[in-house]
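Metal-sulfur cluster assembly factor: structure tokens wanted.
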Amino acid sequence: MATVEDVESALANVIDPELGLDFVELGLIYGISIEEGHAHVTYTLTTPGCPIGPQVEAQIEEFVGELEGITGVSSEVTFVPPWSPDKMSEDAKFALGF
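Answer:
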């Protein structure tokens, strides 16, 4: 059975094409839950007008759906709280010059 940590590891494969870093390092993953094999991921984007939303949802479904024990995947984008660079990991801040 997949764990929240397994899902988070899978989400490290979801890359922001503009920044070249993954959504976990960028602090864009706001929540992960698993209930009876169904994973739900709450995430945000760097800006509300970011055009990669559909691509991100497809990648979340692809990478999380490959995990053993996951029978379904859903995702939800939110802008509350708004994303800011201070949500990034120290490695991401360093890579982007913050």
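Residues 4-89 form a domain with the GMP Synthetase; Chain A, domain 3 fold (CATH 3.30.300.130). The beta strands are 15-16, 21-22, 29-35, 38-43, 72-77.

Cheers.
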